[in-house]
Each structure stands twice: as structure tokens, then as C-alpha cells.
Amino acid sequence: MRTAAELAAMLAEATGKPWELPAHVFQRLHALVANEMVRYIDGDVSPSGRAYTGTIVAFTDTRVLRADLKEAGRRDPNRRAVASVAVTSWARASLTCIALEPEEDRWRNTDDVWSGNSGPQWPAGAAATMEYPGREPLRLPMMENPPAVLRESFGEFIASLAADLALPGVCNHARTDADRS
């Protein structure tokens, strides 16, 4: 990835949302992407006045990057220095679990969602949860209603995630019928 601006453009194209996120968000992500190509990028960010709160996730061939934004805004010379973005990176190959589960009180991963033929796209209303040791689970696509371009991108990308599954571990999201009652 050559520039932070390219990361911003990738996110806008993937999500269909022309967020005007501050440059420092993408500068931080770019610092950890280094010279690797971003294979998938996703985000769920909400505006809050002139600031943004939410999460952006990017995957390279070897790493996962997560940026958590909390009231991230543009630099204000009249405001005391503040850090509103935390970016972490970890090995993509440390993936221990991929789960396709329904969410309580939501329509994701219902039988109807998985009953249709979505072709090369990931089904609308479907989400996969990835677990990495010591990390909060990632649910992708992140947006409730992702555009077709993001669903197509994720449909192609998830096959490579299956290849990332590390040595057998405990999948905390796998529940038995007894757990559901």
C-alpha cells in the first residue's frame, strides 16, 4: 500500500460511504500496513458532530489491523493534544475459529438469509465471526446492510480466511443445542 490516502479511498469504495475521516486515522493504519497490500478492508463508523466513532478493520496477507475510533476528529489547534484512535495489528494466521451464528434480536444469519442464491456475493444479512487469541471477536461484514461491492469482496476474501485457521483450538462461538435452550 503506497499511501494513507489510498487506504481511505479503499474504505470509501468498499463501504459505499464517503466518510470524511481525519487523515490521522489512515496515517496510523498505513504505518502498520507498511509495504503489504490490503486484501480486505471494512468499517462501521458513525459521525458524532464533527467527529467519528467506530471501527475499521484491514487484512493483509500476513496481518489483521484494527482501528478503534472514539470521537476521532480533525486536529484542532485550540484543543489540548488528544489520542482518539487506537490501532492494533496481529498475525492473521493466529485465527482459531470462524463461526456463522444468528445474533439475538437481529436478523443476521437467519435461515432466510442463507436460503437464497447470492451467487458470488456474500449473502445480504450474513455475517461471520472470527476469533483470534486475546482479541475481541471480529464480525464481518461490519455494517448491518453492506453494499453489494463489499459483500462481493468479502465473499471472495472469506475463502482465504479458512486457510488461516491455526492449530485446533477452542471456538468460543460454537454453541451446542443445549447452550441455546
Summarize the structure in words.
The structure is a single chain. With 181 residues, this protein is an alpha+beta fold. It folds into two domains: 89 residues, no CATH class; 70 residues, no CATH class. It is built from five helices and seven strands; from the N terminus they run ααβββββαββαα. The protein has a four-stranded antiparallel β-sheet. A hairpin with a 3-residue loop joins strand 2 and strand 3. The protein is globular. It starts with a helix and ends with a helix.
Short description:
This protein is an alpha+beta fold and 181 residues long.
Question: What are its keywords?
Answer:
four-stranded antiparallel sheet, disordered C terminus, 181 residues, 2 domains, three-stranded antiparallel sheet, 27% helix, alpha+beta, single chain
Number of E strands? 7
Instruction: Please summarize the sheet with the most strands.
Output: 4 strands, antiparallel
- Per DSSP, the total helix count is 5
Q: Provide the number of structural domains.
A: 2
* Lateral arrangement of strands in the main beta sheet: 1-2-3-4
Spans where pLDDT lies below 50 across 5 or more residues: 175-181
Anisotropy-based shape: globular
Strand content: 25-35%
| Strand and helix order | HHEEEEEHEEHH
Quick check: average pLDDT? 84
For the termini, the CA-CA separation is 47 Å
Structural class: alpha+beta
Please state the CA-atom Rg, rounded to the nearest Å: 17 Å
Query: Fraction of residues in helices?
Result: 25-40%
